[in-house]
Amino acid sequence: MASLRRNTVVSILFVVLGGPGIVLVYLPLWITHFRIPNGEPLWQMLIAAVLIFAGLAPTLESVRRFVYVGKGTLMPVAPPEHLVVSGFYRYVRNPMYVGVMVALTGEAILFWNRGLVIEAILAFLGFNLFIRLHEESSLSRRHPEEYSHYKRNVPRWVPRLTPWNGGEA
Q1: Which of 26, 47, 63, 131 has the lowest CB atom count within 10 Å?
Q2: The pTM is what?
């Protein structure tokens, strides 16, 4: 129970003060001062809101899944003990990163800001490098057969239309 509580606190702190918080809150605040341009059409704000909330869903759900299913945290230094292949992970290997990118796209639309577009491009490039150079090799070492099977069946960035059930797709 103590490790569950510790993993929850560590993961929440990482979201708020680390990666997702930096990409979705602190950098956009620094770039835009959270000032929405005057005269934004309602449709634009609605699309932005839908993207932001849709992007937050897999990001926040992944926090819970890493703690309760994976028995670990979001932090690379204290990763989950078990490979997480349920929930949004049945559709795409990186739902947290995809969610952050969707939410950041929503922010760029909401604030109509070139700086956020540049941030989104740089964030995607950084996420992609981190995943390819660190996460995938780390997961391959820690869960060789299970991750190899998962990787063959679930795409890195573009979600499957149907959930993977653990068998061959």
Answers
A1: 26
A2: 0.92
Q: Which residue, 122, 89, 79, 105, is CA-closest to 24?
A: 105
Using one digit for the tens of pLDDT, what is the confidence trace for 84-103?
A: 999 999 999 999 999 999 99
The token pair at 97 is 């990163």
Task: Measure the CA–CA gap between 135 and 58, rounded to whole angstroms.
Answer: 18
Q: Which two three-digit tokens encode residue 85?
A: 């292949």
Which amino acid is located at 6 in the chain? R
Candidates 64, 161, 58, 56; CA nearest to 105 is: 56
CB atoms within 10 A of CB 148: 12
Between CA 88 and CA 85 the distance in angstroms is 8
Q: Please name the residues in contact with 36: beta carbons below 8 A apart, sequence gap of 6 or more.
A: 45, 110, 111
Task: Name the nearest CA neighbour of 157 among 131, 134, 137.
Answer: 131
Reported as a pLDDT band with limits 50, 70 and 90, residue 167 is low
Q: Helix or strand or coil: residue 158?
A: coil
Gap between the Cα atoms of 153 and 168, Å rounded? 7
Q: Where are the beta strands (DSSP E) in 64-152?
A: none
